[in-house]
């Protein structure tokens, strides 16, 4: 904890939507009278049938329902209801990968027409309410149209990040039994082409249920179209009506599935539903970012992740906002790009991940200071703990000391921000997520489940349900119960460590399970290990995280080879490539150490604690190694580490 505190700016303390008094009053009501509080907040949305039953939730047994008798449509709330007032207002400024390529401006009227066409194309391809539709698309306007089209007709989208491999894509298609995949010829990131259609072609022999592939033409690359299966979006769109009715949906009908990594097994399909999710994130967008009518909002997150779902797409549109959507990366063509985009569109609120901030900080201040950034009012960060040094740089250099920073802690499973500063109400502490959002009751417990009150450090739990909470894991409700509600019975366990300081502010310290956070992307060590052991020459692998200046955590792998296989630099390189191919570039190991043996307990369990210490070059603090089956293994590993 850096110990530094920045008071709320005077103008914000007076004029922000949520002032200190307002926060205290609303938070108290949200806890004491959740039904009253959320019934009022549900009025943010247009309901076909307004809910009369508000909160019906239990963590033991696990059953979570919000607004259960309400009927609405998410796409209607994000588009149609704005048309009368805002038809010609810009919904999205779309900025391409390269600044010389043409940008696009999409108004609410245009959004409506394109989403309707997309919806009609999906219907023609046989998609019905409740069907799962897999999206494997770059950050182009069509990914927004496709998601909203699904919402419009009641189909459930499953967006797979376009950086994932064909293998990873096939696994996610199969898990939710999608019969249709929407993709593009290619994506373009940092000037590099991503062969999306080819990846889909490579995935489908392993995903035999897919009947149709809808292909968006983006770069114009030469691709092969398979007759009877593959359909060009622009050809199909030309033949359908430009109007499509919205499907009335129950508040608890699923809106989307999003796969995320856990500490064991394959990625989990986290299921979010309609009414509670949209109510909560719509309020969060207003309250946390202080979004006001006419502001230009930019969340840099890819739609392949939850931050993109909630804050690049659904929340801003639900509030009739104007947003920026950017195809590319922070440092292309150079490290000024983010700040140039902010100037180009006069962005008022900007939201990005600590890893991007650290990377840009490393490029030097000139890239920032040569741009204006005068339009900025507020800065946000999410996805991983932000180190105070990066926070201070974001605050002083990017925001010139005049923009509050909101460091928002949340998760794929939570749908929206859970612990976060409110810019008009909360003192800022670099590195602290500070204070709970409305309706959120955090609690710290020790490993035995004892409650830790006051100033303490422990495991972060949430005591009661909030509307944007995930409802289940697709096809495996028991896994949902086991993963989140069993470690500490009757509580939602976040798997994050957390400190509470003397002021009652929360500081997230990072995952306490076997999940890595690499550049803000969640990665299960088990996934990387299973990719490694699927290689012919590998007999065993253990994966841990280690501190990395830009990525936050890097991936460190220990590999035991099959008997008789010689270790070599070439093989190390091949194995890193192998993981990249199996999962995707974000999973590429940073460091690989051959380990003739791994430290194991007598019962055969790998002692990761020791492997983590060695990866961190912290050899003095290995703790008790006497329970190891063969303690001498540790010395050999240290020797190899030092010689590498
Ligand atoms: C994990 C969830 C923000 C949603 C997108 C990431 C870490 C997230 C913060 C923060 C410290 C953070 C946690 C969490 N995390 N935000 N502001 N400060 N840590 O969602 O991919 O599901 O990852 O990201 O460890 O458990 P996700």
From TrEMBL:
Residues 80-462 form the AMP-dependent synthetase/ligase domain. One of its GO terms (cellular component) is cytosol. Keywords: Acetylation, ATP-binding, Ligase, Magnesium, Metal-binding, Nucleotide-binding. InterPro entries: Ac_CoA_lig, ACAS_N, AMP-bd_C, AMP-bd_C_sf, AMP-binding_CS, AMP-dep_synth/lig_dom, ANL_N_sf. NCBIfam families: Ac_CoA_lig_AcsA (TIGR02188), PRK00174.1 (NF001208). HAMAP family: Ac_CoA_synth. GO terms for biological process: acetyl-CoA biosynthetic process from acetate. The keyword Calcium does not apply. PROSITE patterns: AMP_BINDING. CoA binds at residues 189-192, 307, 331, 519, 580. ATP binds at residues 383-385, 407-412, 496, 511, 522. Residues 23-78 form the Acetyl-coenzyme A synthetase N-terminal domain. It is an enzyme of class 6 (ligase). This is Acetyl-coenzyme A synthetase. The gene is acsA.
